[in-house]
């Protein structure tokens, strides 16, 4: 099962702008994160700079600033290294930005891992070498604070039960009630034997890191009760004005993992398998963003009953981005969900890149009612570049009308 695209879907790809590209000496840019600052019409694009493609060779976070012009074009400035987003003797990974509107503060969360310690080694030894950190900016990312290590104050003694952990990667979200949400996951150790984890029992679980006081203090939520790894989250507002926090997580076994929280991310109820969202055998990170459901959608065929299905049952729709192939990381697509509180609401994907594709991150511009994304992509390998693409809801819906005959 799964809404995998047909070969015919790989046709009209939107134009791409390369922001980060693999260098001849092997320096590779991976793990994109994107945020759009509405008040200044500015994009901030983040990525890891690595000496090679290996996770253990990550070095630091780089950023590019893009200023959006009135005609929708984006003028990108040159890349800059975030020199304060680091800890001594550690490598910096998994950028995860979120903007706090009340204080106009931009937070950039990340994790710092000691030396070249791999995720696998932490999992088999049960010795966590990862730190939870952030830097903040009060001027839209022009300058940044020194790194703040939250590991003890936020995770505390639970760190002994986590083989390793990470945030995102990708963007966080601020809920309508003001709560800041940083998506995260941890490799939970249920059993130990002579201080080592019992083999094959350690597995990842998604959770939130959240703040209810505009970023002054942070807390961790409860883990999902099923296996779930790298994740992103979005707020869904129903017709009664109630908030639901949606989680979409990397999974294994062919399909994504979904869950909903009714208490702003403290815990998630009844995680479910997203049968319409394919996942590669080893999984891949994906991105999700919520946006206001359109009030009116024109219908070209008044006699087509499919138009009746366009009436939204929530005030929020979702867009999800992920490689669409069932077998390997390729053919990056975006899926639309017009009934996000239901488990079977996803339409067929609109393909943005035919070929090798990897991690991605979505952003929404409410002023222009437009979506933008960063994605790892290339012709031979998804590690060749990180590209920026913009598109509209109409682009996605036209694709579904053409391929699935669901829309008119």
Fold and architecture overview:
With 408 residues, the chain is mainly β. The protein has a single domain (17-404), classed as Neuraminidase. The chain contains three helices and 27 strands. It is globular. Mean pLDDT is 91; it is low at 298-311 and 401-408.
In short:
By secondary structure, the protein is mainly beta. The chain contains 3 helices and 27 strands. The model is unreliable at 298-311 and 401-408 (pLDDT under 50).
CATH architecture: 6 Propeller
Structural class: mainly beta
Order of helices and strands: EEEEEEEEHEEHEEEEEEEEEEEEEEEEEH
Q: If helices are DSSP runs of H or I spanning 4 or more residues, what is the number of helices?
A: 3
Shape: globular
Total count of domains: 1
Q: What is the name of the CATH class?
A: Mainly Beta
CATH topology name: Neuraminidase
Q: For the terminal residues, how far apart are their CA atoms?
A: 25 Å
Rg estimate, integer Å:
20 Å
Main sheet overview: 7 strands, antiparallel
The neighbouring-strand order within the major sheet is: 1-27-26-25-24-23-22
Question: Into which percentage range does the β-strand content fall?
Answer: over 45%
Q: Can you give the mean pLDDT?
A: 91
Specify the oligomeric state: single chain
Low-confidence stretches: 298-311, 401-408
What percentage of residues falls in helices of 4 or more residues?
under 10%
Strand segment count: 27
């Amino acid at each position: 099962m799964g809404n995998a695209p047909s070969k015919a879907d790989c046709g009209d790809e939107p134009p791409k702008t390369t922001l980060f590209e693999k260098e001849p000496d092997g320096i590779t840019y991976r793990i994109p994160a994107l945020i759009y600052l509405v008040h200044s019409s500015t994009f901030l694009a983040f990525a890891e700079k690595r000496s090679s493609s290996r996770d253990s060779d990550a070095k630091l976070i780089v950023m590019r600033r893009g200023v959006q012009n009135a005609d929708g074009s984006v003028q990108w400035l040159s890349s800059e290294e975030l020199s304060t987003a680091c800890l001594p003797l550690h490598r910096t990974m998994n950028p995860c930005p979120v903007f706090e509107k009340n204080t106009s503060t931009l937070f950039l969360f990340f994790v710092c891992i000691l030396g070249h310690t791999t995720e696998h080694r932490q999992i088999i030894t049960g010795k966590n070498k990862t730190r939870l950190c952030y830097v903040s900016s009060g001027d839209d990312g022009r300058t940044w604070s020194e790194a703040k290590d939250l590991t003890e104050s936020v995770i505390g003694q639970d760190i002994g039960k986590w083989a390793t952990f990470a945030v995102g990667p990708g963007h966080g979200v601020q809920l309508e009630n003001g709560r800041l949400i940083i998506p995260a996951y941890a490799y939970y150790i249920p059993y130990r034997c002579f201080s080592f984890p019992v083999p094959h029992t350690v597995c990842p679980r998604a959770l939130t890191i959240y703040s209810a006081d505009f970023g002054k203090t942070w807390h961790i939520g409860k883990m999902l009760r099923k296996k779930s790894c790298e994740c992103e989250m979005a707020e869904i507002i129903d017709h009664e004005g109630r908030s639901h926090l949606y989680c979409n997580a990397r999974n294994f076994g062919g399909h994504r993992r979904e869950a909903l929280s009714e208490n702003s991310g403290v815990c998630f109820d009844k995680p479910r398998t997203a049968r319409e969202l394919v996942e590669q055998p080893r999984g891949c990170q994906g991105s999700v963003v919520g946006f206001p459901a359109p009030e009116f959608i024109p219908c070209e065929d008044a006699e087509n009953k499919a138009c009746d299905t366009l009436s939204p049952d929530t005030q929020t729709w979702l867009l999800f981005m992920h490689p669409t192939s069932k077998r390997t990381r390729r053919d990056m697509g975006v899926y639309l969900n017009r009934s996000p509180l239901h488990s079977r609401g996803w339409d067929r994907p609109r393909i943005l890149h035919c070929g090798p594709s990897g991690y991605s991150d979505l952003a929404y511009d409410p002023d222009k009612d437009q979506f933008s994304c960063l994605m790892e992509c290339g012709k031979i390998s998804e590690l060749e570049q990180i590209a920026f693409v913009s598109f509209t809801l109409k682009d996605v819906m036209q694709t579904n009308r053409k391929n699935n005959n669901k829309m008119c």
